[in-house]
Amino acid sequence: MPPAGRRLRAERLAPYALVAPAVLVVVALRLYPLALGVNFSFTGDGERDGTAVGLDNYATLFDDPLFLGALRNVGLLVLLLPVAVAIPGLLATFIYLRVPGHRLFRGVYFFPAVLSPVIAGAIFNLLLAFDGPANALLGTVGLGPVDWLGDPDVALFAVVGVHVWATFGMALVVFLAGFATLDPSLLDAARIDGAALPRLLRHVIVPGLTRTIQFVFVTTMIGLLTSMFGLLYVMTGGGPGGATYLPEYYIWIQQGQLDRPALASAASTVLFLVMVVVGLLQISLLRRSGRVD
After folding, report:
1. Strand pairing partners for 49?
2. d(Cα 245, Cα 258) in Å, to the nearest integer?
3. Could you say which DSSP state residue 258 is in?
4. Would you list the DSSP string of 155-201?
5. Within this chain, do residues 33 and 64 fall inside the same structural domain, yes or no?
6. Has residue 152 been placed in a domain?
7. Across the 293 residues of the chain, what is the mean pLDDT of every consecutive 10-residue run?
8. Are 247 and 241 in contact (CB under 8 A)?
9. First vs last C-alpha separation in the chain
10. Exposed, middle or buried, 161 (CB in 10 Å: 0-12/13-18/19+)?
11. Structural Rg of the chain based on CA atoms
12. Could you tell me if 52 and 252 are in contact, meaning their C-beta atoms sit under 8 angstroms apart?
């Protein structure tokens, strides 16, 4: 083969050679274990350990009120997702536009992210106790105490609020990086035209950060569905009455407490499918709203 042909062939193969190590890592550490877990979900536990049981584990899951409650809580988290994205997005906007107090935001916004979930949960256990500072503050304005962690209608919202507080720093960093790609002349033109902050957000900032918003939506969803175990374990233990169960906590109970790894694998498979479906729906909705190309 002539030297020019060999050079052209090498140039064509170079991208594949560069991505091959990453692909191998993903296959070995992600896809292969995922396939093993899915396969394991079709086997039995206890006396039927290693025996093929078909869809028995999935039938058991969807007959379990705790698991069905965990799935309902996933639906609630999806509804709360826009709020969890809007909070760091607005704070990043305040920092970027240098509104009064932006120096304080810039100095302290990342502090919660350095705390472990156990520490954050322990702090808010004290703050949200029935006789704690939060209820004392409510009492000063004439409002009755709230059983933040003991009321089934309130507990999950309290835990999600703590999770958002503890993790919004990472999303805010991503938003600030997105603002670095925003054309400042667009903002200047809008200001000259007298556009207020709501119009800046709607017509300049949101369209200019479409990819960033999409990325934050997906990563925040993954965090809500897979990174709340520490807070649940410390703050509520899945209670009261299973009201704060999420699939990841249910999986840990089945695997770590009840020694039912096959059932836990089935729950993990369902969680994975839920994440895929929710992620695809998010992308579809964002495209239909015109926010994603």
Report:
1. 44
2. 16
3. S
4. HHHHHHHHHHHHHHHHHHHHHHHHHTTS-HHHHHHHHHTT--HHHHI
5. no
6. no
7. 68 83 88 90 87 92 94 92 91 84 76 88 93 92 89 94 91 90 79 75 82 88 90 92 93 91 94 88 72 46
8. no
9. 43
10. middle
11. 24
12. no
Give a yes or no: residue 141 inside a domain.
no
Cα–Cα distances in angstroms (integers) from residue 61 to residues 66, 84, 106, in the given order = 9, 29, 45
Q: If DSSP codes are grouped into helix, strand and coil, which group holds residue 195?
A: coil
- Tell me the one-letter amino acid at 146: V
Query: Beta-carbon neighbour count of residue 254 at 10 Å?
Result: 26
Please give the tally of structural domains in the chain.
Answer: 2
The span from the CA of 187 to the CA of 97, in Å, is 10
Cα angle, residue 181 at apex, residues 175 and 185 outer, rounded to 5°: 115
Does 146 reside within a domain? no
Expressed as residue numbers, the domain containing 13 is 1-40
* Eight-class DSSP state of 70: H
Residue 81, C-beta contacts closer than 8 angstroms, at least 6 positions apart: 217, 220, 221, 224, 282
Neighbour count for residue 282 (Cβ, 10 Å): 18
Q: Show Cβ contacts of residue 209 under 8 Å, excluding neighbours closer than 6 positions.
A: 89, 175, 178, 179, 182
Domain assignment present for 104: yes
| Cβ count within 10 A of residue 182 | 16
pTM of the model: 0.85
